[in-house]
Structures are given as structure tokens and as C-alpha cells.
């Protein structure tokens, strides 16, 4: 997206015109300062979350804005996680003028009326973002026929792999079925099947040396790309789900295809290893061939000696993945909406997003930046950063939920059994998928717990 032109507010235009006028009595003298001039620059608060280097990148973008716009002073307020930021928004204290939001938190933000829709504000500032953002990104932050927040980050789940353990050229020399990965022509889009993924995991796995082939989290989000790719559905409805859909015929069929690979104990880390360190720690130490993850892993892996690259999620039937999405919102209680909108427009501009993307954590929703060296960083790992861009078109966005974490917690136990139970025959699969769907209903469609009215109680008593 081009750095957007910001329309000067009409009041300032009128004030400037009046300041240049004279009447018959001659020069009236200096124009008295307006209240905003007398009060100094307008102060804005900008709430973000992330690690130290991530916040430093936001600070650099904000510092550039403050330098270019002395009439406004933006101050960054940083939190450790998106959950910490959301809790601060909900605690009733001072609200930020502008804030980052995880798409998974958007439902809570909207229900508590913490944000202000931005469609009209962008129109007033002549922002043309139609070709600069993917449809999936814009739809993810839209609601009630308006853009609720501006898409900022869109990071599809991909497979990170250790090139020393998953050595495609060496595998090809041995006659193994490997994907075509061109390290010279980065415009070629690599892809691979579940069978090729299994071959790679088997090649990387060296149990005697304590090296695991791959790790995929036993969670809804971890399983979702495989379910979708196999022709199944995670939710019974993508807009207003009342249950998960694991017990449906299509999803059970998809699970029957993928679970033999995902459950193979010879290909993964042992329970003992997982009790000692996280999968990411094992990958960083060169003891894990592949791990599913998002763009935020890149800086953490660049600090290691591991030569890593990325591949899209393996394909069962059709390409599919899920993603992390972030947006930028304007606070509903902001007293400086115009200034907040001006800052938001600048913060999502190509120059500002490029500044943040250079730190390596952000997979930008701004497609111009995503296609530039600011994101692709061709002289740094991963070599095939474009895989993230290519995966967006096959990304499935989860429905907006009031409490996504509660849903994960509700189904955690049966999901774990699904992936780790020693015996998984058709009866066990049916029982576990039924259990998963039933457990999900407590979160997605809880029973009505409202107390009966006095009138209904009296009617019930008299009718007994």
C-alpha cells in the first residue's frame, strides 16, 4: 500500500484562510492561538504486545511518526502478551487511543465495545487499501458491514525444518520421494504431500541419537490444517458454531488419513523429551527435524546455528492452513479520534510497516511490504520466506469466539488421547471424536442458566 495521503481537517483549512484575511481597519495583529495550539501537542497512547525486540521495532516506527508530526505525541505502552493487553483493556482503567489486537480477541473487544469502527475514518483520509490487502485479511477484521480494525499481521502456519536433518538433495539421491525445492529460483512455489512429509520425518528421525522427526501440537489449531486439507471441518458452522465437527463423516475420514502419520511414535519426540524441554527448544538444539509454527519463530531461530527453512503445510487433499492475524484498532473511548486515525493510517503505511517487518517477527498484511525485501530478507534465514505469502490463499480463518482458550481447554484431554492413545481403532476414534464435540458444546453452546422468573415458578407450582 502506498503511504496514504492524509486529508487536512476542514477546521484547519478554514482557520488558515481566516488568518490570511484582512479587513478595512488594517492588520488585526497576531491571531490568538487555538486551544489545541495553547495546549501543545496532542498525546496519544498506543498499546502493543511482544518481546523486547518486537517492541523496539514498534518504538522506531512511532519515533519516526512523532518526528514527522510534532503536533502529536504518541507513546507506546507495551504488554507481554495479547492476553495481557486484553486484560488491561477490560479492567476499566485508562484506555489506549490505538491498540493492537489479536484476531482471536476481536470478539471480546467488540462485545465490550472497546473499539471504534474505522471504515468511515479511512474514507475521510482517502485511504485506498483494496489492492494492498488480501481478502482474507480484510474479512477477518470486518463486522456489521464495517471494517472494525485495520489488518496488520497475517502469518500462516508453516513447517520449519532443519536442513541438516531434512536434506532434500541427499534424500533425492537415495531415491526417496521428495518435494521440489528450488534454492536458486525462489519464485517457484514448493509444495509437498502428506506422504512426502512422512518420508522427511522418517529420514530425520534418529531415535538412538535422541532426534525426533517432527512435532505438531496436539491442539485444535495444531490439527486444523490437516483436518481441512483432508476434506474435514473443525467447526459445525464457520460463522456461528455451536459445536466442533470432529464426529462428522468427512472429518473422521480426514483423521483416518492423517493420524497414522501424526501418531507414529517413531517419528516424534518421546514423552520423556517433552517433559524435559519444549519442542522449540529441541529444534533450536538441532534435535528435531520439523516443527509447525508461525513467523514469530524466525528471530528465535536466527539466533541459533541451525540452518533452517520453511515449507507449506503438507497437503492431504487440498492445500490448507490456519494463521495468526493481528490488527490495529482505535479505542472507543479515545478523546482524540482524528489524531488517532491519522496515526493509524501512517502506522499501516508501507514505510512504517517495513520498519517493523525488518525486525523479522512480523508477516505483514500489507502486500506491498510482504513482497518486498523488508519482509523476504533474501540474505537471511529462512530462504523461502515467500512460502508464508503463498500460504495465505489457502488459509482458513476460525470463527470469532468469545473465549478461544476455553475451547482449547475443554477438548484438550480427548485431543491428546486422539494423538497419543496406544490403540486407535474405528470404535475408539468414534468415541473420542464424539467426546470432543460434546465437550466443545459447553463453550460454544452452553445451556441456558438463567433463573426462572417468579411468574413462571408460580405457574409451574400451580400446575403440579
TrEMBL record:
Q: Where are the transmembrane segments?
A: none
> What ranges does the record list as Low complexity composition bias?
445-464
Q: Where is this region: Disordered?
A: 436-464
Is Signal there in the keyword field?
A: yes
Q: Does the keyword Signal apply?
A: yes
Q: Which UniProt keywords apply?
A: Signal
**Span of the secretion signal?**
1-19
Instruction: Extract the PANTHER family matched here.
Output: ARABINOSE-BINDING PROTEIN-RELATED (PTHR43649), DIACETYLCHITOBIOSE BINDING PROTEIN DASA (PTHR43649:SF12)
Record-given protein name: Extracellular solute-binding protein
Give the organism, scientific name.
Answer: Nocardioides anomalus
Amino acid at each position: 500500500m502506498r503511504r496514504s495521503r492524509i486529508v487536512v481537517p476542514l477546521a484547519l483549512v478554514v482557520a488558515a484562510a481566516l488568518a490570511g484575511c484582512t479587513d478595512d481597519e488594517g492588520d488585526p495583529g497576531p491571531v490568538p492561538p487555538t486551544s489545541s495550539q495553547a495546549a501543545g501537542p496532542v498525546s496519544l497512547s498506543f498499546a502493543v504486545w511482544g518481546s523486547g525486540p518486537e517492541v523496539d521495532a514498534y518504538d522506531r516506527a512511532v519515533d519516526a511518526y512523532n518526528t514527522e508530526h510534532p503536533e502529536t505525541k504518541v507513546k507506546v505502552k507495551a504488554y507481554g502478551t495479547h492476553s495481557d493487553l486484553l486484560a488491561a483493556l477490560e479492567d476499566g482503567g485508562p484506555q489506549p487511543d490505538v491498540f493492537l489486537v489479536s484476531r482471536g480477541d476481536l470478539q471480546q473487544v467488540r462485545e465490550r465495545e472497546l473499539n471504534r469502527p474505522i471504515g468511515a475514518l479511512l474514507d475521510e483520509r482517502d485511504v485506498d487499501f483494496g489492492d494492498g490487502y488480501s481478502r482474507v485479511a480484510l474479512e477477518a477484521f470486518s463486522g456489521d458491514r464495517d471494517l472494525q480494525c485495520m489488518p496488520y499481521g497475517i502469518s500462516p502456519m508453516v513447517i520449519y525444518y532443519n536442513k541438516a536433518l531434512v536434506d532434500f538433495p541427499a534424500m533425492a539421491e537415495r531415491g526417496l520421494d521428495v518435494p521440489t525445492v528450488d534454492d536458486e529460483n525462489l519464485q517457484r512455489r514448493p509444495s509437498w504431500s502428506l506422504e512426502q512429509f512422512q518420508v522427511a520425518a522418517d529420514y530425520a528421525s534418529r531415535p538412538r541419537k535422541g532426534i525426533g522427526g517432527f512435532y505438531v501440537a496436539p491442539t485444535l489449531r495444531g490439527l486444523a490444517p490437516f483436518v481441512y486439507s483432508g476434506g474435514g471441518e473443525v467447526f459445525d458452522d464457520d460463522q456461528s458454531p455451536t459445536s466442533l465437527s470432529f464426529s462428522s463423516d468427512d472429518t473422521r475420514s480426514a483423521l483416518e488419513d492423517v493420524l497414522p502419520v501424526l501418531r507414529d511414535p517413531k517419528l516424534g519426540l518421546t514423552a520423556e523429551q517433552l517433559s524435559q524441554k519444549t519442542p522449540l527448544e529441541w529444534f533450536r538444539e538441532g534435535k528435531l527435524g520439523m516443527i509447525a509454527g508461525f513467523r514469530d519463530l524466525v528471530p528465535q531461530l536466527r539466533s541459533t546455528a541451525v540452518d533452517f527453512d520453511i515449507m507449506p503445510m503438507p497437503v492431504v487433499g487440498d492445500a490448507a492452513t490456519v494463521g495468526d492475524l493481528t490488527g490495529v484498532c482505535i479505542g472507543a473511548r479515545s478523546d482524540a479520534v482524528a489524531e488517532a486515525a491519522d496515526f493509524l493510517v501512517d502506522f499501516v503505511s508501507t514505510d512504517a510497516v517495513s520498519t517493523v517487518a525488518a525486525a523479522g517477527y512480523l508477516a505483514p498484511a500489507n502486500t506491498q511490504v510482504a513482497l518486498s525485501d523488508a519482509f523476504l530478507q533474501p540474505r537471511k534465514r529462512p530462504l523461502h520466506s515467500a512460502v508464508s505469502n503463498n500460504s495465505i490463499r489457502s488459509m482458513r480463518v476460525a470463527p470469532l469466539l468469545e473465549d478461544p482458550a476455553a475451547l482449547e481447554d475443554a477438548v484438550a484431554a480427548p485431543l491428546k488421547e486422539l494423538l497419543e492413545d496406544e490403540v486407535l481403532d474405528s470404535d475408539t476414534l468414534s468415541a473420542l471424536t464424539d467426546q470432543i464435540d460434546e465437550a466443545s458444546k459447553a463453550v460454544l453452546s452452553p445451556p441456558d442458566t438463567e433463573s426462572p422468573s417468579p411468574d413462571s415458578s408460580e405457574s409451574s407450582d400451580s400446575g403440579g
